[in-house]
Specification:
globular; Nucleotidyltransferase, domain 5; six-stranded mixed β-sheet; single chain; 2 domains
Length: 367
């Protein structure tokens, strides 16, 4: 599905605990410079008025009337009905806030709200990694095409979203793709987000160096240390990102076992992929032990690192065979190798969320 030639305009918002980033999207492109307002406020009324003001500023800059508002907002939430629940990062949202109905009454157009992980995955499926990889397969003469995508965001927390055959998977309680609630492979009584997050990277580096967590460098600095471009304990930095990758890989492999599709990674930590992505893919492919002593493949598919030249080349290579149709003279194509790939956002996380929000709104309007 593509909206590259669609002239309709949708107003968007990427809502975080620190800032609200407003924009408008048309033909799969952001058409304004982002409008950024602080998310800090004294009470709920002030937050809501700030959100209205942000959309009013966007609307004032548009040539054509927008057809919808569509944006990412943290959960828990009843996204289908536009109701936001109790939020940790935006503490004034308590007990259910009818944000969607409020905006619809204010602007007189449909309003759609969703999780940022879902909209990130949808944006990458519409205009990011998914079409990019399918184009590369076509150029390589490989008939294989992918239609399923798991989007993972690495940052303050660990987010997820699932796109299957052009549609988002929500679940019956607006809780589909909540990968952060999977069990932590290393710390069995924790959720995986405790390791796959900024705090997880800092904790591991502090533990490996004996530093106090309060004086620990930020992940971007730990990455530079791991790459040998900044002073610090390089091996400790590499170990911190590898521990992060092992726990992320376990959760993503569990998700892919159910979904069977490509993996796209975004979020503030995704820029450190040169250190963590090779380890993440290696761990996804690491076999289980069995009681018989014979190893069992971790997944029925083999994961490839799409950011590595040799890994991408192997992924793109077709291994299709022509096999005979019994009792006839005909043949059919058969590929015995099951492949998936993991790569980094092609759009950038914020832009992917905006395009995902835009595409989701148009899909709902056209349904």
């Amino acid at each position: 599905m593509t909206y590259k030639n669609d002239i309709r305009t949708v107003m968007t918002l990427d809502a975080g605990g620190t800032n609200f980033v407003f924009n408008a999207v048309q033909a799969e492109q952001e058409i304004l410079e982002p409008i950024i307002l602080s998310a800090r406020a004294a009470n709920l009324e002030e937050v809501l008025k700030m959100i209205i003001e942000g959309f009013r500023q966007v609307e004032s800059k548009l040539v054509h009337k927008p057809v919808a508002i569509s944006f990412a907002f943290p959960g828990p939430a009843d996204y289908e009905n536009g109701i936001i629940g109790d939020l940790q990062n935006l503490p004034f949202f308590k007990g259910g806030v009818a944000l969607g109905p409020m905006l619809q009454a204010t602007f007189g157009i449909p309003v759609f709200i969703n999780n940022d992980g879902d909209l990130f995955a949808y944006g990458e499926a519409i205009a990011g990694l998914l079409p990019d990889i399918n184009r590369k397969l076509e150029e390589a003469g490989n008939p294989k095409r992918y239609r399923n995508l798991f989007g993972a965001t690495f940052g303050t927390g660990f987010g997820g979203g699932i796109v299957t055959r052009n549609g988002l998977l929500f679940g019956d309680n607006s809780s589909g793709g909540e990968i952060n609630r999977m069990r932590n492979r290393t710390f069995k009584s924790w959720d995986v987000e405790e390791s796959v997050s900024i705090r997880g990277i800092k904790r591991e580096y502090a533990n490996n160096t004996g530093l106090n967590i309060a004086s620990c460098p930020e992940p971007k600095d730990i990455f530079e240390i791991g790459m040998g471009r900044a002073k610090g304990d390089r091996q400790a930095a590499i170990n911190a990102f590898h521990a992060f990758a092992r726990d992320a890989a376990d959760a993503i492999a569990n998700a892919i076992t159910l979904l069977d599709g490509l993996v796209v990674i975004g979020g503030g930590l995704s820029g450190a992929y040169p250190i963590f992505l090779p380890k993440l893919v290696e761990e996804m492919n690491a076999p289980y032990d069995t009681m018989s002593g014979k190893p069992l493949e971790r997944m029925e598919v083999v994961a490839y690192n799409l950011e590595d030249a040799s890994g991408l080349a192997s992924f793109l290579q077709s291994s299709s065979l022509e096999i005979p149709v019994p009792f006839t003279s005909g043949t059919v194509s058969f590929d015995p190798n099951k492949k998936i790939g993991a790569g980094i956002s092609r759009l950038g996380t914020s832009k992917a969320v905006s395009i995902g929000a835009y595409a989701y709104a148009l899909a709902k309007l056209d349904a």
